[in-house]
Each structure stands twice: as C-alpha cells, then as structure tokens.
Amino acid sequence: MASTTKISPLAPKGGFPKLPVIDGIRFSTIAAGVKYSDRTDVMLAEIAAGSAIAGVFTKSSTRSAPVLDCQSKMGRVEDDAKGFAFLVNSGNSNAFTGGIGVSAVEAITRKTADTLALPVSHIYTGSTGVIGEPLPYDKITNTLDELSQTLRADRIEDAARAIMTTDTFAKGASATCEIGGVEVSVSGIAKGSGMIAPDMATMLVYIFTDAKISQLGLQEMVSRLNEGTFNSITVDSDTSTSDSLLVAATGTSGANVEDNETFERTLGVVMKDLAHQVVRDGEGATKFVEIRVEGADNNIDARKVAMSIANSPLVKTAIAGEDPNWGRVVMAVGKSGASADRDRLSIWFGDVLVAKNGWVSPDYIEADAAAHMKNEDLLIRVDLGLGAGQSTVWTCDLTHGYIEINADYRS
Amino acid sequence: MASTTKISPLAPKGGFPKLPVIDGIRFSTIAAGVKYSDRTDVMLAEIAAGSAIAGVFTKSSTRSAPVLDCQSKMGRVEDDAKGFAFLVNSGNSNAFTGGIGVSAVEAITRKTADTLALPVSHIYTGSTGVIGEPLPYDKITNTLDELSQTLRADRIEDAARAIMTTDTFAKGASATCEIGGVEVSVSGIAKGSGMIAPDMATMLVYIFTDAKISQLGLQEMVSRLNEGTFNSITVDSDTSTSDSLLVAATGTSGANVEDNETFERTLGVVMKDLAHQVVRDGEGATKFVEIRVEGADNNIDARKVAMSIANSPLVKTAIAGEDPNWGRVVMAVGKSGASADRDRLSIWFGDVLVAKNGWVSPDYIEADAAAHMKNEDLLIRVDLGLGAGQSTVWTCDLTHGYIEINADYRS
Questions:
Q1: Which of A280, A309, A340 is the last residue of a domain?
Q2: How far off is chain A from B403, nearest CA to CA, in Å?
Q3: Structural domain count of chain A
C-alpha cells in the first residue's frame, strides 16, 4: 500500500533535509521482512558511552510492551563505560500482544545487548505497525549481526526511512547553536501519522545531539519542550498506544548545555519542526492549521479551547471546504469546558477580524476571510477577552482522504 | 438543500408514528419565511393552565439567547390561572447575535404573550438554523394572530415538521402507561442533527403528557432520564449552542405520577426513542451503534470509555468500512483517561468475543465479527474487568456523507 501512496501536498519542499552528523552516533538499517517486503524495516542507532538519554511516551493505559520497557529503563545507567542503542522496527507495533509481546521485547533487547556488548538496560526499542499480532522477533534478532557490522555516522536518512509505515515522506530536522564558542548540533527523525488497516497511527521520534548534559537535565528539558511541540499537535484526537520520543546527548562536542537556554531553544526548534512535519503528513490532510488562543483565564483553559477547536470535526471539515465558518469556532469554544464569555469573544482567520465582542465584526467582509482559507497554511486566532492565558496548537483538515484511508477497505 | 436530501437509511420504517393526542395541548404551524420558502418554519404549542414545565439545556458557554431566556424562566409560575406556550422557529438559531438576539427573544415572547393573553414568563422559545445572523423576528411576530387561530390538538406531526432544518425525517415517539387505573400518555417530537452551511446542528425536543406532577418532580425526573438518553448520544462530539429539551405535563388525565416509577419508565421510553432517532439521522450515518461498557471502576469511568469509543474518528471510520478493527477500540479505551488494565480488557462485536484478557481471543474467527459489522444496527461491548461501573451510549459511523455535508460547499 505504501507504494501507491502519494506524497502529502503539505510535505516540505526539497525532500529530506541534510542533517549534521552527530559525533558518537551511528546508524544501520536492514530489510528484515517483519511485514513489508522490498524495503528496510529495522533501524539500529548506536550511541556512545557517556551519553544522556531522555524520553517521553504515550499516556495511553493500553500502551505497548516496548513503551513499557523503555519507561522502566529511563534514567538508569548500569555501566558508565558502556554506550546505548535504539532498535526500532516498522510493520508490527507489538501492542496488545499480552505476555508474548513482553517476551519479544526481551528477546530483541537481549540479542541487541549481546551483539553490541552492552547491558540490556541500555537498549531501547520501538515498534510501529499492525496491532494485536505477535511480533516475529526472530526476523529481527537474525539481522543484528549484519546491523552491527554496517553502522555508519551518516545514515540518519536511511534510519528515517526504515521506521516509516504509511508516512508519505521521511521526516528529518536539525538545528545548530554556539555554546561557549563550540558549535552544538541537533539532528532528529520522526515517523507518523499515516495508517493502514489494521495499523495504528504511531508517532516515533529520535533526536541526537553532541551537547553535554546530565540525564536529569536533558529529561527536564525534553519534558518541558514536549508540551509546546509534540503534545500540541493533533490529527484526529486519537492517541496511539506506542508514541515514543527519545533524545540522546553524546556530549562529544564538549559543550556543556546544562540549564542552557540557547540549547533548549535549539532543541525546541528541531522538536517543533518534526511535530509540524507529522501534522503535514496527517491522513488526508490538505491544510496545515495553527490555532492560537489568547485572553483565556489561564493557560490550561486556553489549551482546552485550542484543542476543542483543533479536534472539532465541524471546524476541520469547514477548513477542508475552505469555508470561513466562524460559527463552528464559536461552537467549539462553547463546548470546550473552559471559561468563556460569548460577548467578549473575538475570532480572526489569518489577519481578518471575523467576530468581535460576541457578534460578527461590523467591518467583516467574507471575501477577505474566504481568501485566507484558500492558503495551504492557515491561522485561526481566538481572543477570549478574559485574562492572559494562551496556547497554540497545530492540526490539519478533515477530508475525504481521511475517510478513504480509514474506512474504504476491509481487513 | 433540504429538497435534495435523501431520507437517512436508518430512519424508522413506516414514517412518522401515530402519536396520542394530549388533552390540554394544541399546536399550529405556519410558513413565516424566516429563511426557507415553501415550507413551515414556525410552530406554536399552547399548554393548558396548571401544567408543569421542566427542561434541560446545552451546557455550552456560548449558548443562544433563546436558551438563556428559557433557563431564566424554568420553574417560575407567575399566574396559576394561566397556561404556557412554546414558540419555535427553524432557519435561524439566534445564536451569537449579541444584544440584537436578546431583543429578538423579547419581541417574540412579548407578542406571543399578548396574543395568547399569557404572562411573558410563561413563554418558552427555541430557534434553530443559521448562526450569527440577526433573527428577522418581525416575520415571526406577524404570524402570531394566525397561529393562535389555527391551534388544534391533533397537529403534533405538523409541529415536528416545522422545526426541522436539515433533518431527513420528522421525529416523533410516544408511550402510554396505566397509573391507578387511568391511562397516561406521553407524546414527543425532536429535531436534529442534520446541518447545512453555515447552520449548526441543534437538537430541539418537546414532549407532552397528560400526567399530573409538580414542576420540581417533573424537573428531577427529566434531569435524571436525560443522562441515559439525550446525554448519551453523540454524532460527532460537537455540542450545539442551542440544544433544548422541554417537557410539559398538563395533569389533564388526573393521574398523579409524583415519584411514580412506572411513569418515569414510560417517559424514559419516549426520550430514548427520540434520542435514538436523532442518531439515526446523524449526518452521513449508515450504521447505528450501541457502545456498552461494563466492568469499569465506576460509572463515570465507564462513561469516559464509552464516549471515547463513540467519538473516536478511527473507530467510526472502521464501522463505516464494516471492519471489525478491535485495535482501534483498544486505542480508544487507552486514551479515555479512565482506569484500565490492558491485560483484563475484553471486547465483543455483537456476540462475537474478539479480544480477551489483553489479547485477541483464541476462539476468535474474524469472519464472525465481520458478519456482525454488516448489520445496520451494531453493538460494541467492552468489559474492563475492574469493577461494577457501566455505561451505554449510542452513536453512528463516520462516512464520506459527513464530509460531503460539512465540507463540500463554499458558503
């Protein structure tokens, strides 16, 4: 099915970007035949000793065996002299597979650890693809020797391709900054959020940097940045059982970025870029939409309103129809559960003030708003007129493409 | 647009049901030209003195002027010797219309009160249709004389037709019971949840009975029943700014139903029937789906899980595709926020046990579940295996029809 998929119209122009090589990180990929044929489906990332590993994961109560395993290992360093590894497969998510799923993770992490001479607790796995089917883990363990012998620092694009399921394009992003006269690089890859029957949308993100930072410092930074990036995107309000974000900091640049705001901003740029690319590959998406909410009682209320708008099927279909249907935005504000006063509410589509103080703006010309809606990248801005709370989230439209991908088949 | 709409495939067979006449209630309708031409769009229900009126309304923070006006009047009886009236228009929802909207409600309730010689506080209005446009209330007030002169007890079907917007069929239901040897009747009508640009889905429900009950007793009964009926349906998770349910009990049968469980069950039958009809007229719906959740820690958790499944675009598209995609049900359980243990979860499609104790059932034959999915009426049952909490909700599938209705136009 992947072969017939057209690249999303919202894909970044120019193809996969050139990402800086991160000293201390090497990649290899292989076609293990987990489910797909004629394509790579396993990637190994080897990470130098002394690196810090941080991560955030889906909050789903039905999360997958690999996610539970990664969470149990986070923050542990069994041997300072030993490095780490990420081992990720596509084609099978090893989710809702009971005790067999746990055994599969054990087999894969054991074999990876043995092959690379690392502690098992230093091996993080990720799986994405079909749910509820046993992962044929021997197909993966059989490839470890070859994977370990073909590691190269400049193969991150291959890694990005090996973890794709029904993504229509490989996702990569990078940024650099200078810390104390030393250049620090951040390179990351992501997959999501395509889906084929009976697969689940899964977002997997792996980011690498040569910055030097403690595990705790990196974890706090990643958790903080995650709120405004990956946790602020939504394609269809459905949360995967496998979402995982892992960040490895090798320290090989020698630049200490503990509590460093410049580095945090740089890491944030890469996380936001990858998060946006996931939305731009949303199922059936033809519009990329920023929802910016201001003037809420507090940030929590602002986020409720922003997510209520971003997840509303009526708002998303109006966007697909290029219809500046502000009534649906009012509806979404009203149902959000956040404090709102109808008569203080203002709404903009792009720069066009549509509604003001609870009614259509006297200066509103629908043709202006309709012109904005024809753009590929849209902005819907809401001012609740109550306080200083604000939130920005990103979403895409809801089109026939979404129905085709998710309904027009029989498994 | 209404003229080209095909009747929902899920509409009750046999057309509008024959509803018992309720002594003390009379109806009239007229084509006022609020927005539509060539059809009735205003209905008046005259309600005898001594009746009890109860109601529940949308919790939206951006609710319409008529809703706010009704809420302010609920439970008030200014003059025991005077009756009540419901005055409802389609074509314009008078929502998000600022101070002009309040003036429109005042003008309509004043004219209705004057014409029928009733206190203004005894007049309840409802409006459904386009949002954000001033309601041309003079078109309505101009019809009051004729409306008041054409009232008849047997015109409830006409009333049901006058309040339709893009409903594909008129909705009515009734039930009777015997209380102390006296037959008590309940007849109700509803509209929802079709929608055309730029209208909003609105659910309006009016129920009449000749039972004798206090306002407080009726209100408590209606609020209680509402949870398991209208509050347990969802088409697309979007909440209208105008949803209103009003129940009038005339007492003309002489049967006292204060705290009477038989009557409460009877009223519940009518409310559930009308609620199901709203789902059966859901936009683009081809399947009517009951979601039954058992074994939750408590009823609140059960409801969270049921609504998470019922509102999941991935579950709804799978249903549209007649795909027994239980992985998406697992996903929806996981994201619901309710307590769940993956390894205690069981899922049935109809009578077919699909997943058990966190993995696909050893006896599962996909063809059996696929056969169930071909039905028009479906059941998805989930047992969380934790406690005694349960909840049942009803929804429909998500199809190309929904996208066509809501996206394939330009306003």
A1: A280
A2: 6
A3: 2
